Amino acid sequence: MKAKRKIASILAAGTLFLASCSSMFYPKANALDQIRQGMSQDEVTKLLGKPDFRRIDYGLEEWEYSKLFSPLDSDYTTVIVRFEHGELVYMDSFHAADREPQLPPAPVVQEPVAVVPVQPAYPDAMPDRLFRDFHRKVKSEMFKDDQLQLIQAGVEHKLFTCRQCAEMMSLFTFDDDKMQVLRLFAPRLVDKENYETIVREIDSMFTQDDAKKLLGIPTR
Predict the structure, then answer these.
(1) pLDDT in tens, 8-60
(2) How many CB atoms lie within 10 A of CB 94?
(3) CATH of 25-99, one of 3.10.350.10, 3.20.20.140, 3.30.1450.10, 3.40.50.2000
């Protein structure tokens, strides 16, 4: 009987220890859902704790976290928040493994075949190879304003497809920033009939209507 009581006490203590460890080392599971634009640094710290890394540049400050949001998680979540004059203006979160470069598959040796050149669907638009370089340069910029300036300079005297515009918009989290990108691309789109590709990148229905108006698409 004494042995059973001892085992029960050990199990209860272990449960209490795990619970205390969970509250000590892991933020709340819904902490990311509570983060809102305009929050102060103190409010973010209460939700996520002190950052693992900080970057500061002319009034802008970026914090980076690497968190396990549950003892059951097998992969760390990277969280990046950006403040402008002390207020949160940007947040991004992702699993590190999702952004690790994938190794190309082993080449398969095949018999040579005749290659017939395929004309691009929109020959006037920027070739995908050049667009990938453009997209990569914008993505490598740390701050939103630098990204937008690079886009503004890169779209001059060039034409693009709606798909390319949507890919560039996807680099930004908030609809207002995505609309800034769209305003730069809109006069240079060669296939506005494919506007739905762009609209799907926008969360708010009201902002979706604004995007359609900007593209000259009738709305209800």
Answers:
(1) 555 554 444 444 443 344 566 678 888 899 999 999 999 888 999 998 877 78
(2) 11
(3) 3.30.1450.10
